[in-house]
Amino acid sequence: MVTQRTQLVALSILLWIGYFLIHYYFLSFPFDSEASIILATRVVAIHAILFYVNYHILLPKLLDKNKYVTYFLSLAILIVFTYFLFSLSNEMPFIHDAQETGRHRRFHEAPRLERAFRSRIFINNIISSLAVLFISSTYWTIRRNQQRKQREINLMNENLQTEMKFLKSQINPHFLLNAMNNIYYMATTRGEKTPDMIMKLSEMMKYVLYETNAKQVLLSREISYINDYIDFQRIKFEQQPDIRVDFSGADGDKNISPMILIPFIENAFKHSNLGDDTSFVEIRLSTSGHSLQMLVSNTISRSSTKDKTGGIGLENVKRRLEFLYPDQYELSINDDEHVFTINLKLELK
């Protein structure tokens, strides 16, 4: 598998080859082929040293640590070193002598570079060296900013993932606490229904323990869990409570984040007194294309109070929605004197 680093190295090699060919092309006019190769190699080698010393050593170890004086002194030394290298190479023989032969001569046969020509070459090399340093510094600045931004994004994602795990971990203890209270109540009043409740709870916990660690599950599995939860609530009552459920319009083959819907349903049962003849819980779920619509409505018990000792509440699920479906959901809550209604529209991934 080709990594990003491998691609970057390959691109760098291609760029240096292209840089070499450009120098070779322009040097081939006054010099023969052999001399052009040597001179182009000299320029590229010196500029490569400049580029990578500045990029890998001076910039990260000095400038990035706010050692500005040391950085610019080191840069000056590097430029002097470049001057020394170019001065040595300027002693190379002149390659082209049109006055004598009218054609390219062999590298070892040419006379020495004339002073004016050497000065022009030297100035061009220094200017190009400064340009290389500028490009090196600009590229390093861009890469550093990209890396810092990526680190910030990674840190933010790690924090969000940690928060998500914490929020999700609150779901199971909250439900389990309510379930155990219900089983205890059932055991003390109608013991014959206790085994059914324990079996239903077992099925639900299997789903929670073994399937909800995935990022997404089939909507059919989430609906199955919701049905089990509703059945678990029904068992508590001697007479059938007014629970209205319609999942017929839902496509079970869609994918959804696990346990994202159940808090709304749990909230409805928690705050509705289904033992009252006038109380009800209504749950409707449907899909259209990639959109999911859910309505949860329940009467409000006059004795219902906010759970101050536990539970994730609606704030938890709002934060989960914001993390899992950013800009992909609409949540409206209508809380009047008698009925509490939630409408959720979700764009499934």
From TrEMBL:
Annotated Gene Ontology cellular component terms: membrane
Transmembrane segments: 7-25, 37-56, 68-86, 121-142
Protein's UniProt keywords contain Membrane: yes
Domain Signal transduction histidine kinase internal region intervals: 163-239
Keyword Acyltransferase attached: no
Gene Ontology MF terms: phosphorelay sensor kinase activity
Coiled-coil features, chain-numbered ranges: 143-170
Keywords associated with the record: Coiled coil, Kinase, Membrane, Transferase, Transmembrane, Transmembrane helix
SUPFAM superfamilies membership: ATPase domain of HSP90 chaperone/DNA topoisomerase II/histidine kinase (SSF55874)
Protein's UniProt name: Histidine kinase
Gene source species: Fulvivirga marina
Organism placement in taxonomy: Bacteria, Pseudomonadati, Bacteroidota, Cytophagia, Cytophagales
